[in-house]
Write a structure and sequence with these properties.
This is Primosomal protein DnaI. This protein is of the alpha/beta class. The protein has helices at residues 2-30, 67-96, 117-125, 127-132, 147-159, 170-177, 184-193, 209-225, 237-241, 246-258, 269-294; strands at 32-33, 40-41, 50-55, 58-63, 136-140, 165-169, 196-202, 229-233, 259-263. The longest helix is centred in the N-terminal third of the chain and has 30 residues, at 67-96. The chain starts with a helix and ends with a helix.
């Protein structure tokens, strides 16, 4: 991906240089010497492309950019900036998600009445203040009510602004932690370099002493760097505020220090999707059967 982007950049740069060279030749053919100033003048904007300077007592002509060329230079600079921004956004998105399905999670793809959409949009729009005050969220609710989709939508909204985000889950993190080739300290530091860390499906990972210890270390490290955290979980507020065991209490209390609960009360969206897909399959198969009968 990076090699393709670099190659694309070289091609664009080469084409840009070729186009600039051709345009320059055409522009120079339109240039003329102003009768009043005796200075080379642009045939497009009719402003000087030369100026007189004093050089050791003599007047010398030096080249300057006319207004037309200044505008062209601004346009080219802006085009380069946008291209670099596009590469940066693609890199941030690639490093954020472990599942490509989240790439389509966008505000423009959501229903206007989607639960807590306004909170998510404001979180993105006001992220500078959110980040400064270290404001995290706990998205809690039943299975399939849209928590993960909303979290991914927030991630994409921030990435579009070139803000670094990592969206993962503790199952993935714990699998990485069992890899002896991974430097655990560096791994946690890489997570905490991101301006926003999103942990999906918290509470669904295996509950062993090993797991609890690493979960606490990840949460505690995030707490200590003072950067925002978003967690999605099926655990309800009662479970989070009144944990059964000491190990859970240690982790949950730290999370509640960092993030505020947002409760989802909607219906299971996955069931609706399943029904919609079933209806579509039925209609397609039924349509195919009708065509078959006509033949």
């Amino acid at each position: 991906m990076e090699n393709i982007s670099a190659l694309l950049g070289e091609v664009i740069t080469k084409r840009g240089k070729d186009n600039i060279s051709k345009e320059k030749d055409m522009e120079e053919s339109l240039d003329y010497v102003d009768e009043k100033t005796n200075l080379l003048t642009c045939g497009h904007c009719h402003t000087a492309k030369e100026k007189l300077i004093d050089f050791m007592g003599d007047k010398k002509k030096v080249h300057i950019s006319c207004k037309y060329m200044q505008e062209k230079e601004r346009e080219e600079k802006e085009a380069r900036r946008k291209y670099q921004q596009m590469l940066r956004i693609n890199e941030l998105r690639r490093s954020c998600f472990e599942d490509s399905i989240f790439l389509k999670a966008r505000f423009e793809n959501m229903d206007r009445d989607s639960e807590h959409r306004d909170i998510a949009e404001n979180y993105v729009d006001k992220f500078e203040e959110v980040y400064k005050n270290n404001l995290g969220l706990i998205l809690t609710g039943d299975v399939g009510c849209g928590k993960t989709h909303l979290a991914a939508t927030i991630a994409n909204g921030l990435i579009d602004q070139c803000i670094s985000v990592k969206m993962t889950n503790f199952t993935s993190i714990l699998n990485d932690m069992t890899n002896f080739d991974i430097n655990k300290g560096k791994y946690i530091n890489n997570l905490n370099e991101k301006k926003l860390l999103i942990i999906d499906d918290f509470g669904m990972e295996r509950t062993t002493d090993f797991a609890y210890e690493h979960i606490f270390n990840i949460i505690d490290a995030r707490y200590r760097v003072g950067k925002p955290l978003i967690i999605t979980t099926n655990l309800n507020i009662s479970q989070l505020t009144n944990p059964i065991g000491v190990r859970e209490k240690r982790i949950y209390s730290r999370i509640l220090e960092m993030a505020s609960p947002i409760i989802f009360t909607g219906k299971n969206r996955r069931i609706k999707k399943m029904k919609d897909k079933s209806n579509l399959i039925y209609e397609l198969l039924k349509e195919g059967e009708i065509c078959k009968m006509k033949k």
